[in-house]
Write a structure and sequence with these properties.
Blueprint lengths: L29 E2 L11 H10 L12 H11 L6 E4 L1 H13 L5 E5 L5 H7 L4 E5 L8 H7 L4 E7 L11 H10 L5 E5 L24 E6 L12 E4 L2 H10 L7 H10 L3 H24 L11 E5 L8 H10 L2 E2 L1 E2 L8 E5 L3 H16 L1
Parallel strand pairs: 1-10, 3-4, 3-5, 5-6, 6-7
Antiparallel strand pairs: 2-8, 7-8, 9-12, 11-12
Helix pairs in contact: 1-8, 2-8, 3-4, 5-6, 9-11
This protein binds pyridoxal-5'-phosphate.
């Protein structure tokens, strides 16, 4: 008997492992594993969720019209080239499906966001990781690895999990040096947290007839990860392709309403950004003083790099934190087995993490 067979490349994919949410036997768990935003959802978004809950029986507007108009207005973009997705994950997957397949290559950096290789693998394409320099994307290393087969280059700027970024002039240099047929995807998942003069999320590079895409999410500073809402900005041709392939109702009416309202909540965003800067600086300094290396992050998390000594390494630190009810993220799957990624949470959460790691390092 011959049984149904999946596409052979699918069985090589290691399923995505998300941040844990529970620890057996611990009542109060502190979860700093998924960069979800310290303050929960924006109050304006929560209000919109309550107000639209009774519309759950209605199919959503398949074009997310109000949300896309709000985005266009806020960022001064062409509404016809904006596409909403069920998180930016949805759009990453769509880009892979539409542009890559067997015989092609998809390019990203050595410590790239895990969903790029996962979604790319579903298409049967080959994966190519370019080395980084100082755990930061390296334009020349990326350009060297681009060839006739390369279809997509995914670059999170700033990057998760390293927290590092490339300045605007380096991004422009990357686009200039890359072959024109390579679609450059700039993922700005953490853009709202950034406060640097030389940073640019790249919206201006997404021209109507060009080869750059920008992705954004409501899962980080807006605190709406559970609802699944994100968006992208595309060229005319790429938007047309993605709109043909995406699910017609890919973002729920409640998520659309919440995201639209969140975009009006500048006060919440400003408060989140200020809190994040203060506690990221504080946490980084405290950890460095303990002998843990923390590369400078411009995101809502830090990468904590532990010494190699047994008993003081990342694995032991993770176990110790967990025994105290604190969940952070192991980074072995990202090629950083010496590191833990710690999201910036509330003040008492950060104090507890630092106190616990102080006890761990000084034991
Ligand atoms: C969190 C994250 C995303 C987005 O996730 P969604 O919840 O699917 O919008 C995208 N890219 C990077 C680099 C991220 O860290």
């Amino acid at each position: 008997m011959s049984m149904p067979q999946p596409k052979p490349w699918l069985l090589d994919i290691a399923p995505y492992v998300g941040g844990e949410a529970e620890i057996k036997g611990v009542d109060r768990v502190i979860k700093l594993a998924s960069n979800e935003g310290a303050f929960g959802p924006s109050p304006k978004a929560l209000d919109a969720i309550r107000k639209t809950a009774d519309q759950a029986y209605r199919y959503p507007d398949g074009d997310s019209t109000k949300l896309r108009r709000k985005i266009a207005e806020k960022y001064n973009l062409d509404v016809d080239r904006i596409i909403a997705g069920a998180g930016s994950d949805d759009l990453i997957q769509l880009l892979c499906r539409c542009y890559a397949g067997p015989g092609d290559e998809v390019l990203f950096t050595a410590h790239a966001f895990a969903m790029y290789p996962i979604y790319a693998s579903t298409t049967g394409t080959a994966l190519v990781a370019a080395p980084e320099f100082n755990i930061t994307a390296d334009v020349d290393a990326l350009v060297e690895r681009a060839n006739d087969k390369t279809k997509l280059l995914f670059l999170a700027n700033p990057n998760n999990p390293t927290g590092t970024y490339l300045p605007a002039d380096e991004i422009r240099r990357l686009r200039e040096k890359l072959p024109e047929h390579v679609l450059l995807v700039l993922d700005g998942a953490y853009a709202e947290y950034v406060n640097r003069n030389d940073y640019d999320v790249g919206a201006d590079m997404v021209t109507p007839d060009g080869n750059v895409v920008m992705l954004r999410t409501f899962s980080k500073i807006y605190g709406l990860g559970g609802l699944r809402a994100g968006w992208g900005y595309f060229s005319e041709k790429t938007a047309d392709v993605i709109n043909r392939v995406r699910s017609p109702f890919n973002i729920s009416n409640i998520a659309q309403a919440a995201a639209t309202a969140a975009l009006d909540d500048d006060e919440f965003v400003e408060k989140s950004r200020r809190h994040n800067e203060e506690w990221r600086r504080w946490t980084s300094e405290k950890l460095q003083a303990l002998g843990i290396t923390v590369p400078e992050s411009i995101c809502n998390f830090v990468l904590a790099r532990f010494p190699e000594e047994p008993g003081k390494n990342a694995e032991a630190a993770d176990a110790f934190l967990k025994s105290r009810g604190i969940i952070v993220r192991r980074m072995g799957g990202y090629g950083l087995p010496d590191s833990l990624r710690i999201s910036i949470g509330l003040e008492d959460e950060m104090r507890l993490v630092v106190d616990t790691l102080t006890e761990f390092m000084e034991a």
